Amino acid sequence: MNSPTPSSPEVEDGARANEVRGAVRSTLQLGGSLMVTYAIALGIRALMPRYLGPEAFGYFNWSEAFAATFFVATNLGLETYIRKEVPVRPDHASDFFGTTMLLRLAMTAVLMVALALVLHHTGEPPEVQHLVQWFAVAHSLIVVNASMAALLHSKGKVAGLSISNVITKIVWGGGLALMAAMGVGIQWLAVPMVASEAVKLVISWRLAKVHLGLKFRIDIAATKKVMKKCLPFFLTAAALACNGRTDMSLLGKLASKEEVGWYGGAFSIAGLTFLISPIFGWVLMPMMSRAAARSPQELSHLTRRSLEGVLAFTVPVMMAMVLGADLWVRLMCGPGFEPAALPLRVLSPIFVMAYVTMVSSIWLTMSNKEWWVTLAATMGAVVNPLLNLALIPWLYGRMGASGGATATALSMFFTEVIVTVLFLGRMGRNSFDRRSLVMVAKTAVVCGVCVALDRFLAGSVSAWPRLGLTATTYVVGVLVTGAIRPAELLQVVRMARQRGNAAPSEVVVTATPTV
């Protein structure tokens, strides 16, 4: 009788099956916590515009964007490095974690002093300066928590983290709701975020010690090697962060804080399409890291199917945002935010492209082409502010209300188009095969039919019924054309219900001699 050896095809297939089952279960666990946290965030996103009004809401969004931009440097590129390396060698985490924590603490102290000096000379109101400083503390904690979460995702231990996400979101949302009920000043509205991130750090540190045996030790030599490898990841993260934050800062200076409020309202609604974005770093990236360690072909196959799933989720959400923009603005933001509808329509397609670039960047990173990701992200970080500088004064003076906000949305749209084209061009045939291209073509046809139907019904059917009819048309269209395959979705659900080990690293294989 022959028993499988550790390198036999049977063992490798079993390990892959266990890995997929573990990834699906992790996705469902994290997805469940995301549903809860997004429900809380949805309530807060509807509350804050109504509580503050367009101008104060503009100051609120501008303050967070300014603080986040200031603290980009503390990212260090560690999050991406962890998700690439730790899934295949978990013990490596203790080599650099302690030293990088001290480095971040020193950088935070210096940046807080610099931020105070900058704010002192900007002429912003004192309450806004205090708000920015609170947001700065929050973002310094967010960066550390992102690394802690990356460690746990790399190990596949997400149950405790899922509970932590819910607890900390309740702290944040409950704190903001309480402050709104008490009518506190705008300068204190970032305190709940600081409190929630502090709670998350305590919980995450405990989970990392339990599941990874994480130790706080100082190893400067090892950390230097890690920082060298993190350089492209750091530059990419800095470019992406600046690309997503400097636009609000420029809009507030070149137009008005009210325009920032309208743009912030549109961005908050469109940002709901990022519901599943954390899954990419939490589950997909570690899974693709293991696939890349086995073979480039397996990595490419996983990438193509992931892109199909991305489009299946994001395209209908985008269509709902575009066709129902006026409805969503009234529902989520309330009176005074009507001009946010046009920027919302412009922003909605961006998030489809953003998801595509997420998957593409993971493939490039796992294929050791991380400098290409850095190049494309840096180009976007340069193009976006230049477009803002050109478009904001032009449209703000010609369109009136929401002209500046629309200009900022257009700048992000054109930037995302450039980055997406660069990523997919570098991937070549590793991005889409015949199956996925057929799916894209069918989906595009269904979208065209939905837009035509919406325009045809616009003069005779009210907004909500019209949106319902177009949504039904989309669902029927993608099912009839085969753009979406329900059988494959059911297969994923069945896989999630199976019992087994969560990851191949937990599969114990004993070599038995031939009898």
Automatic annotation (TrEMBL):
Signal sequence range: none
UniProt keywords, alphabetically: Cell membrane, Membrane, Transmembrane, Transmembrane helix
Main location: membrane
Spans traversing the lipid bilayer: 30-48, 60-82, 102-119, 131-154, 166-190, 260-285, 306-324, 344-364, 371-396, 402-425, 437-457, 463-484
Membrane topology annotation: Multi-pass membrane protein
Keyword Cell membrane: yes
Domain of life assignment: Bacteria
InterPro entries for this protein: Poly_Biosynth_Transport
NCBIfam families given in the database record: Wzx_EPS (NF041871)
Descriptive protein name: Flippase
UniProt organism field: Corallococcus soli
